[in-house]
Amino acid sequence: MSELKELAQQVGEQLLQQHKALAVAESCTGGWVAKCLTDIAGSSQWFDRGFVSYSNAAKQAMLGVAGATLEVAGAVSELTVREMAAGALENSAADVALAISGIAGPGGGMPGKPVGTVCFSWAGAGGEVRVETRHFKGDREAVRRQAVGHALQGLLNVLGQK
């Protein structure tokens, strides 16, 4: 079993055991997390929905990310993913949300935010939020694959399985 499939299976098992539903808000991963999760048979019991909000306009319209946040912090920021996760919770029936935004490359890097920079947020309906920024190496696919793996592992951590 591939690493991503194994992580997705574990996430599903934890959500099912805890009677929780998940929503994801993805930018740079383009729905890859949702695909991994919905590849698991029975995922409709714990996966509510996914938002692919690649553009800033989509982040605002679908998830309620503030224009000022995007203007000041940028799409790839902990502030933005925090708002994306909150928007995913608000616009779903989920108890837990994950948000990802990053620079997968090969272009798009800038001072302070090189290619491979990815921001994550994991949020619960009770108000608990974790945010993190990571820097991954490799080409576009490698950065995205690592981001998906890290996002799934972060969900396991949030759900209490280290």
Concise structural overview:
The protein has about 160 residues and is α/β, with parallel strands linked by helices.
Order of helices and strands: HEHEHHHEEEH
In CATH, the homologous superfamily goes by the name CinA-like
- CATH classification class: Alpha Beta
**CATH topology label:** Maf protein
Mean pLDDT: 96
| Contiguous helical run count | 6
Q: Just name the CATH architecture.
A: Alpha-Beta Complex
Specify the overall morphology: globular
State the domain count. Answer: 1
- What portion of residues is helical? 40-55%
Strand order of the largest sheet: 2-1-3-4-5
Strand proportion, as a percent range, falls in: 15-25%
Computed CA radius of gyration, to the nearest angstrom:
14 Å
Assign the structural class, choosing from mainly alpha, mainly beta, alpha/beta, alpha+beta, or little secondary structure.
alpha/beta
The count of DSSP E runs of length 2 or more, i.e. the number of strands, is 5
| Low-pLDDT regions | none
Tell me the span between the first and last alpha carbons. 19 Å
Query: Which sheet architecture does the biggest sheet show?
Result: 5 strands, mixed
Structural summary, described in words:
The chain has 162 residues and is α/β, with parallel strands linked by helices. The chain has a single domain, classed as Alpha-Beta Complex (Maf protein). It has 6 helices and 5 strands, in the order H-E-H-E-H-H-H-E-E-E-H. Strands 2-1-3-4-5 form a 5-stranded mixed β-sheet, with helices on both faces. Helix 1 packs parallel to helix 6. 43% of the residues are buried.
